[in-house]
């Protein structure tokens, strides 16, 4: 595939932006052969209460580094501001980029975090930090927010996976995001608006024959597990049972069942269909969904690209937020818009912006997050944070607290107590209600 011409050339961005992060994956059952845990995980009544409340998280991951100056923190009329302007929103006094007029109408649901400073300009390391709340080291690996949410919030009786990533391209494979929580809480990838592949029974196989096959498999598994049970064998068993449940609820992944008017409102493009899929999954009991939009690595042609790409984002995202609010789901759903970093205030000679992690923005909505609010401030030209500085660790704690998870607690894994968030960081209490 051709490399996107505006990108930095890092390994993360050697794919065309329309197929960024898409993969050629195997079936659900084959791709999830290692789905068990590394040990016994403690549950507890608090987790059960959260599952009963059906708390959910959805992350919009703007791969490549969304420009805060063309989105959440515009600086019109300055030497760093570029051609974009700011427009008023539904909250008096709060302005965002004129590239997102529909989103501006829903500012009363949003909380802008304009003081993010992560001090990491590498794509891979920055993405890891934003999704795990920790810096990447060789000494340890940490679970991403989707795996933690699936572990703490998901009700398996729903018959659906708890951790789903929706992006253009192929789907059906398992991710590798759960670290010490165990592969059971890794993601399942969906290819845009398509159900997972290999989730229909072959026509030549009767329902009765299929039932007998699984009865034999379960009987043999039980006999084997009684003598040689390991985390790997548990994982193998879980993957089959998860695949069977998913096949039974395959219609959940079929957005063609949504009204034509909904398709029109979200937009007839990849991102619009992904947003509609995300809403459908959350409505049906999936606890964590990540929607990918890429590739914002605009070292060249930053402004033309953001005009095009944010047009898609604005329509799909604003409609999603509106629907979640109108359906009474916002109190139980945390919405996050993040990236691995922002873009430089300086405009380079290719009319682009480079990597910039010192002063950029993340957006939250729903759950216990304050609404119609701004926290943090950058200076007049967006070159540094002057008030309310936060980092990846504080944000990760805040995401969990916003859906009722005590981010200071630990999870017992193989007899060890492991904190689910960085104990050196703390939630941003000022944006939680």
Walk me through this protein's architecture:
It is a single chain. With 433 residues, the chain is an alpha/beta fold. It has a single domain, classed as Alkaline Phosphatase, subunit A (3-Layer(aba) Sandwich). The protein has eleven helices and 16 strands. The chain has an eight-stranded mixed sheet, with helices on both faces. The protein is globular, with a radius of gyration of 22 Å. The N and C termini lie far apart (47 Å). Residues 15-43 have low confidence and may be disordered.
The total count of helices amounts to 11
Number of DSSP-assigned strands: 16
Task: Output mean pLDDT.
Answer: 87
| Radius of gyration (Å) | 22 Å
- Sheet with the most strands? 8 strands, mixed
What's a quick, concise take on this entry?
The protein is of the alpha/beta class and 433 residues long. It has eleven helices and 16 strands.
Summary keywords:
two-stranded antiparallel ribbon, alpha/beta, Alkaline Phosphatase, subunit A, 433 residues
Strand-helix topology:
Elements: H1 28-31, H2 45-53, E1 56-62, E2 86-88, E3 95-97, H3 101-104, E4 110-116, H4 123-132, H5 145-153, E5 163-167, E6 188-191, H6 207-228, H7 231-248, H8 260-266, H9 270-283, E7 288-293, H10 302-326, E8 333-338, E9 342-343, E10 355-356, E11 360-366, E12 373-375, E13 377-378, E14 385-387, H11 392-402, E15 410-413, E16 416-419
Parallel strand pairs: 1-7, 1-8, 4-12, 5-6, 5-7
Antiparallel strand pairs: 2-3, 4-11, 8-11, 9-10, 13-14, 15-16
Helix pairs in contact: 4-11, 8-9, 9-10
